[in-house]
Amino acid sequence: MDFISKRPLSNGYDAILVIIDCFSKMSLFIQTKTTCTSSELADLFVKHVFSQRGLPDNIIQRNLSTAYHPEICLQQCNSFFYSTISVSTFTGEILSLTQSMSASQRYKQQADKLCLKPPSFNIGDSFWLNARHILKTRPTPKLLERKLGPFKIKSVVLKNAFKLSLPLKWKAIHPVFHVSLLEPAKGLYPGKTHPPPEPVNVQDHLEWEVSCILN
Questions:
Q1: Among 82, 98, 83, which Cα is nearest to 24's?
Q2: Which member of 28, 125, 166, 200 lies 3.0 to 4.6 Å from 170 by CB, making a disulfide possible if both were Cys?
Q3: Where on the tree of life does the source sit, at the highest rank (predicted)?
């Protein structure tokens, strides 16, 4: 592990941290700065080495050798061509990674064909909330509400996630829900109000049914 420093400035970096695996000779070239401290070096090591390959048994730093000539320490870029696999070890790893990414992309394309585009909802629209993820205190699931609300959309977080205006007693519940849990409350849309019921004819007198007792 060593630095190639005092390089031409590129995107704010003027040094390269070179890390070579003594066993496979695989090299890592990490952009950094000449003023890199020990704390910043540790962060780079954890991010680029430890997170992917774990902690090595030994770490060797190149000292007292010729600058820009890593072969003197028996370390160099692994570009040797192996006839058994028809590629170099470094190229083989890149090829394996490329094939894995291509396979993942094909799986994603097939899965995206089965996905539906999320509907376009607007702020202020009212929706019923599916209650399957809401904890209830009733003794039997048969008595639970299947839908709660309706609630209005307060803001659009993502294309498929919306923040609802929940009552204050539900302050312990996170107000952002996936679109699959929302169902439009069609009866509450503007311009779709139901007309009041007609009066009932009782003995030639028009009477109205009592809807509720206020007091």
A1: 82
A2: 166
A3: Eukaryota
Closest residue by Cα to residue 145 from 136, 156, 155: 136
> pLDDT per residue over 26-52, tens digit each?
778 888 988 888 898 889 888 888 887
Q: Are 190 and 126 in contact (CB under 8 A)?
A: no
In this structure, are residues 25 and 75 in contact, taking their beta carbons and an 8 Å threshold? Answer: yes
Question: 154: Cβ–Cβ under 8 A, 6 or more apart, which residues?
Answer: 123, 162, 163, 164, 165, 175
Distance of CA 173 to the CA centre of its chain: 21
Which residue type, as a one-letter code, is found at position 152?
K
Nearest Cα to Cα of residue 181 among 112, 134, 141: 134
Residue in 5, 2, 31 with CA at minimum distance from that of residue 18: 2
Q: Which amino acid is at 66?
A: T
Overall pTM surpassing 0.70 (yes/no) = no
Q: Are 17 and 41 contacting, i.e. CB atoms less than 8 angstroms apart? A: yes
Q: Which amino acid is at 2?
A: D
The number of beta carbons lying within 10 Å of the beta carbon of residue 38 is 7
Q: How far apart are CA 70 and CA 84, in angstroms?
A: 27
> If we measure between CA atoms, which residue out of 108, 144, 138, 130 comes closest to residue 181?
130
